[in-house]
Amino acid sequence: MPEGDTVWQAARRLHNALAGKVLTRFDLRVPRYATADLTGRTVLDVTPRGKHLLTRIEGGLTLHSHLRMDGSWKVYANGRRWTGGPTHQIRAVLGTADRAAVGYRLPVLELLRTSEEHRAVGHLGPDLLGPDWDPGRALANLLGDPARPLGEALLDQRNLAGIGNVYKSELCFLLGATPWLPLGELPEDRAAQLPALAKRLLEVNRDRPVRITTGRRDQSHFVYGRAPRPCLRCRTPIRSANQGDGSRERPTYWCPTCQSGPAPPPGTR
């Protein structure tokens, strides 16, 4: 599941493969940009911004993509078979003399002026893995709505950018609070720890092939994906439910013993 750390890794792979090289193929398989052709232009850089990817290209253009739940970018040496999915799932192909970057199942793909990148990412809060990281601002954003459930606030990219369902559940566990606890009820000392804790989790995982939040290779997560197995700390069965407005699946996991606060509303289990 793409979150800030996996998007950072994708940006690094794309940057290493494309930056400084001339495009020999530029194929966007979405109706709006089907005729766009940037072959002959040089890729300048690939930059992550939260869960967004910005591929900047000579001439003041940026290819903006977002992976959401199951999108991915794969890089292949020329001549190798593409294995990221069936052909009909390919949304973008950026080729150079020796590499091909292939975007699969990309729900967001747009070509915009680099000077107008703010239209795509200007709403985002401080990026946990970016140069704009500001823990004070991130905390102020989160606490701006004290009645909002902790889990929902963590997923809101306007507060801080890079957290998805996995880190949401793991952060709530490490803070000892259920994801449904109103932020205003989170003890002040724990709230103060939240930005640094979130940043540390993403930083230690951005160079790992497998995400680990526990420090244990035999158990990669404290709660995420572990229902109904026993909690690693207290042995109480982990529970799961969906959190949010119901418009999309938001799997949430928690330990009812180690985490204090409300349980999910009836009907969400």
UniProtKB/TrEMBL annotation:
Domain Formamidopyrimidine-DNA glycosylase catalytic, residue spans: 2-103
Keyword annotations: DNA damage, DNA repair, DNA-binding, Glycosidase, Hydrolase, Lyase, Metal-binding, Multifunctional enzyme, Zinc, Zinc-finger
NAD in keyword set: no
Main EC class the enzyme belongs to: lyase
EC number: 4.2.99.18
Pfam families: Fapy_DNA_glyco (PF01149)
Domain FPG-type: 222-260
Top-level division of the source organism's lineage: Bacteria
Region Disordered: start-end pairs: 237-269
Protein family (similarity comment): Belongs to the FPG family.
Identification of the protein by name: DNA-(apurinic or apyrimidinic site) lyase
Organism classification: Bacteria, Bacillati, Actinomycetota, Actinomycetes, Kitasatosporales
